[in-house]
Amino acid sequence: MQADEKQLPINDLSGEGAEGDRQQGQLSWIEGLIDSKHWPSLRILFTGNLLLPILILGGSMLASLLTVLLMLVQQQGYASLQLVLSLSILLALFSLILVLIRLRSQLLRPLASLEQTVNQVCQGEPVASKKHEQTGVLSSMARDIDSLSEELTDIYEDMEVRVARQTSRLAQKTTSLQVLYDVAAGINQSENLDELLLEYMGVFKRMVDARSATVHLVLPDDRVRQVGCIDLEGRLYNEQEMLPIKLCQCGIALSPGDILCSQDARICARRNNRTMFSADQVERVSVPMWYHGDVLGFYHLYVDKPGIYDGREDVLDILNTIGSHLGMAVAKQRSDSEARRLSIVEERTSLAHELHDSLAQTLASLRFQVRMLEETLQSDAISEKALHEAQRIHNGLDEAHDELRELIYSFRAPIDQRGLVPALSKLVERFNQETGIPAFFQPDCIKTDLNPNQEMQALRIVQEALANIRKHAKAHTIRVLLRCRSPGSYLILVEDDGVGFEGAVPQGNPGEHIGLSIMEERARRVGGELSIESEPGEGTRVELVIRSEKSEASLQR
C-alpha cells in the first residue's frame, strides 16, 4: 500500500500513464533501491515528488556545462550549441521552480504544521488528526505523531478517571475515619443505645448510598429485635413506629405457617403501591456488631447491584470496624444494666440480712415469751378473756413472723436473671405449691425491655397482690396475665374469683391499707398506673400498666 501511494505523484508528473507496464517495472526497481535503509534521503525525495525534478535540474545543468565546454573547444556550430544551451537553461529554470514549489508544499508547510502539532501535544491539548496528503514527505512522521497524540489523550483521560476515583476514595475514607472516631467517642457519651444505633444506621446508609437500611439487636435469649429502619423515601422509623408483624399480611402468612398468596411479587407491588425489587437489582450488605466473638446485633444495607463487594474492600473494612465498635457499645450497655441489677440485688440481700439479724430475732424472742406467758396463765386461775387476748397476741406474732420470713425470702430470691417473665412464672408456681390454690400464669410475650428496677417493682406488686389473695380472698382460681400491648408498654393483671370487697379498699385490718398504699407507691416510683377493681362475691382485679424508659422517651419526643 505504501508503494502505491508513492507511485501516484510520479505517474502524474511524468504524464506517461499509457506506458504503465514498462514504467511500473522501472518504478518498482527505483522503489526497491530507495527503500533501502542506506538511502533515507532518496526515500524522502521520492515520497515528496522531488527526486525527478532534481534529476532533471541536475541533468540540465550538466547538459549546459557540456554545451559550454563544446562551444569553447569547437569553433563552428555555435547556433546549434546555443540552442541546446538555451533549452538546457530553460529546463533547469523550470526544474528549479518546480523544486522550490515542491519544497514549499511538501516540506516547509508540513514542517510548520507538525511543529504546531508537536507544541499542542507537549502542552497536553487535544489535536485534530490531519490528512496525510497535507503532510507531504513527513506523512509517516505525522502518522506517528497522531498515534502518540491519541495515546497521550487516552493516558490523560485514564489518569483523570483514576485521580477522580482515588480522590473520591480518599474523601470517603476520610469521612469513614471521622465516623469511626465519632463512634469511639460516642460509646462513652450516649445514654440511649437505641438512639445511637438509629443514628449510625443513617450514617451507614449515606456511606454506601443504600436504598434502605435496618438495624437489629440479638437479645440474650437469642431472639432478634428490630430497633428501627429507614425506608426507600429516607424516612426513619423506630421500634414503636413500625407495624407489628402480626398485623400485616406477611405476618398473617408467617404466624400460622400457611401460604396466604402465591401470586407474583409484582402484583403485590401494584396492589400496595410500593416498589418491589428482585435479587438481580438489589443486594443486602450485612454489617455485624461483634464483641469477643459474639454477634450482638447487625445492620442490613440494601444497595443497588453490583454493590460494594466488588473492589470496595476498604469500605467493607471500615463498616466492619465501625460495627465492632458499636458491638462494644451494646456490650457496655448490657454490662451497665447487669451491674445495676446486681447492685439492687446486693442491696436487697444486705437488707434481708439486717432483717434476719435484728427484727426476726426480736419476733422469735417475743413468740417464745408469749408462749411462756400462755403456759403461766393456764396454770393460774385467770379469766378466759385474758387467755383469749394472749392467744390473739400469739397468733399476731406468728403471722408477723411468717410475713417477715416471706419478706426475707423475697429479698434473698431476687428477680430471675432471664427477666420478668421467668420470675413471674416461678412466683406463681411457688404460690400454687404453698397454698394448693390453682394459679395460672399466661404471658403474652417472652421478653420485656423494662429496666431492672421496673421489673423488680412489678414483681413486688404481684407478690403483694398474691399475699392479699392468700390471706383474705378465699379464692378457688387465680390468674396472672402479662400482656404486651405495644412495643414498650405492658399490662400485668392479677385476678381471682374470691369473695371480693366493696369500696376502693377492703375493710378490716388497717395493715391492708398500708399494703395497698405500698403497691401504689411502687407503681408511681417506676412511672406505672395501678388500679384495683372488686365486687362482693365477684373477686378482685389488680391491674398494673407500666412503660419502659425507651417508650416514655419516645412519647415525650
UniProtKB/TrEMBL annotation:
It comes from Candidatus Thiodiazotropha taylori. PROSITE patterns: HIS_KIN. It is found in: Cell inner membrane. Its EC number is 2.7.13.3. Keywords: ATP-binding, Cell inner membrane, Cell membrane, Kinase, Membrane, Nucleotide-binding, Phosphoprotein, Transferase, Transmembrane, Transmembrane helix, Two-component regulatory system. GO terms for molecular function: ATP binding; phosphorelay sensor kinase activity; protein dimerization activity. GO terms for cellular component: plasma membrane. The chain crosses the membrane at residues 50-73, 79-101. This is Sensor protein.
